[in-house]
Amino acid sequence: MSSSEITAATESVAAVDAVRAGAVRLDQVTHRYGRGGEAFTAVGPVDLTVPSGEFLVLVGASGCGKSTLLRLIAGFERPTRGSVRVSGTEPRPGDTAGVVFQTPRLFPWRTVRGNIDLALRYAGVDRAQWPQRRAELLARVGLEGTEKRRIWEISGGQQQRVAIARALAAENPLILLDEPFAALDALTRERLQEDVRLVAERTGRTTVFVTHSADEAVFLGSRIVVLTKSPGTVALDLPITLPRGDIDAEELRSSREFAELRAQVSHAVKSAAAA
Amino acid sequence: MRLRHVALPVGSLLLFLVLWQLLAASGTWSETLVPSPAKVWDAFVDVSTTHDGVRGYNGTTLIEHLGISLRRIAFGAGIGVAAGVVFGLLMGTVGWVRSLFEPWITFLRTLPPLAYFSLLIIWLGINEEPKVTLLAVAAFPPVAVSTTAAVAAVPKSLIEAARALGGSRWDVIRDVVVPSALPETLTGVRLAVGVAYSSLVAAELVNGLPGIGGMVKDAANYNNTPVVVVGIIAIGVSGLIIDGLLLRLERMVVPWRGRT
Fold first, then answer.
1. Are residues B130 and B72 in contact, defined by beta-carbon separation less than 8 angstroms?
2. Is the per-residue pLDDT at B172 higher than 60?
3. What are the domain boundaries of chain B?
4. Domain ABC transporter spans what residues (chain A) (predicted)?
5. Phi/psi class of residue B254: alpha, beta or left (left: φ > 0; alpha: ψ in -120 to 50)?
6. Burial of B1 by CB count in 10 Å (0-12 exposed, 13-18 middle, 19+ buried)?
7. pTM greater than the 0.95 cutoff
8. Same structural domain for residues A39 and A139?
9. Does the B38-46+60-253 domain belong in CATH 1.10.3720.10?
């Protein structure tokens, strides 16, 4: 097949899917690590479609393959079987999604500003626009005035904020977050959860968020998918219709609906892990 | 704290001088074997100044001898360090390059510089070329080895983070691999300069004058022990100063060392 034919084929598939930017589609995805007798199936088979603009939270006990699923969507891994599509094309690291990892993974030889600037450079942003874009990004995660700080001079929560700002720099239509707040204290975690939800609501980006916390899932998601234990498959697919927007975060967390949903998700996670 | 950091080193130096003086004065060994501190001081003044129409040692003052040697080290170690960094980067990133060169570098590293100096003399004559080459060959392995190890140990998580931001393969090498390997590489550089320094006398064994190592060798030929001691002290002190400067440079260039 010539490259023009491949392009044409990809385009027609994209047309059939009627994909919008940032939409994710997993078809019968299985992923296996290793070969032969030592092979270990981490995920699958999974069918999952994430429409553009959705905030999907993947929940499951540790080792259920939820991080692997995220790595497949990010393009760090190719599925052993099945297909992964983001915005209708095969995902490639750096092209399709902004990624926030469990640890900030900032570059210690660069300042806060240097870390953001590197992301802007890789995203191909014109250098003249850097100061403005940098200021916007830092303001969005509440880090104004920290530009000159060294990475080890700011707190773990602030580091993860820089990581989020960095992931937003390329303005990818899809953002992937892999248990980004697991290592933070409860107060910082709740604050960052509110901020991430605001960012997602304001920018309208598709978001896939991995966590093992039912509480976090219900607070953030517009939809929750619970995975079974490894190899992870979809155990529960639950739309969340809690009131959003202006409602106070404290009020939301203490509402009865919130408590009920949290109990439901928590129960699903436990029975999925035991099954 | 102050006492421990200033008084103890100074005290041990004074004690050493006193013991030296006592030993020299006791007459157990002849003056040729153990010259007194005063004799060494006289020699120091002699080789540092012009007196009786003679300039320093063999027409060159101590500081000039040292300067010429330092220039040789700068050239030689400079070439060795540059080659070491290039090889280290290649060997750390490309597996087969490492397999290809690592045995040779290990072999080179085990050889004392004096072992290949004769060969260098045969190949390159007795002027600057064999000296600078010897220092380069001596400085090369430590940098190559430490850079290789550092590059191979670059955290995969940071490489992945850079790729997730859209960095190309080259971007990743420039923005992640090189800075991440820098602290270890600089340690290798300090090591390399140390090795080059300790090879200095060997490098200047043949036709080493002017040069501090050549001065030591030449003075030894004439049983001029005070000048030998002056030369040894000059090499030691300047070595300490250079190591201190490199350490400061390291702290300046890699302030993140030990903080990740």
1. no
2. yes
3. 38-46+60-253
4. 24-254
5. beta
6. exposed
7. no
8. no
9. yes
pLDDT-derived band at B257 (thresholds 50, 70, 90) equals confident
Question: A163 in a domain, yes or no?
Answer: yes
Output the CA angle B168-A49-A104, nearest 5 degrees. 40
A138 found inside a domain: yes
Cα angle for residues B16, B21, B25 (degrees, 5° grid): 150
| Tokens linked to B83 | 């080659």
Q: Which of A171, A195, A225 is the last residue of a domain?
A: A171
Distance to chain A for B160, nearest Cα, Å:
8
User: Which residue does chain B place closest to A114, by CA atoms?
Assistant: B175
On whether residue A102 sits in a domain, the answer given is no
Does the CB of A171 have a partner CB in chain B at under 8 Å?
no
Confirm or reject contact between B158 and chain A (CB < 8 A): yes
Reply yes or no on whether the pLDDT at B97 is more than 60: yes
Question: pLDDT tens for residues A168-224?
Answer: 888 888 999 999 988 888 888 888 888 888 888 888 889 999 998 888 999 988 899
Mutate to test the interface with B, among A120, A122, A162 (most CBs of B within 10 A): A122
Q: CB A150 to CB B255 under 8 A?
A: yes
Instruction: Inform me whether the C-beta atom of residue B156 falls under 8 Å from chain A C-beta atoms.
Output: no
> Which ipTM was obtained for this model?
0.84
Distances (CA, A) of B76 to A89, A160, B192, B210: 54, 46, 10, 17
Question: What residues make up the domain containing A130?
Answer: 107-171
For residues A178 and A254, state if they share a domain.
yes
What is the average pLDDT across A36-42? 78
Name the domain boundary from A171, A187, A213: A171
Is A112 a domain residue? yes
Tally of domains within chain A: 2
Average pLDDT for chain A: 85
- CATH assignment at residue A17: 3.40.50.300
- CB distance from A93 to chain B under 8 Å? yes
The rounded distance, in Å, linking the Cα atoms of B193 and B63 is 20
Which chain A residue lies closest to B179 (C-alpha atoms)?
A: A109
Q: Do A105 and B161 touch (CB under 8 A)?
A: yes
pLDDT tens sequence across A86-96: 888 899 998 88
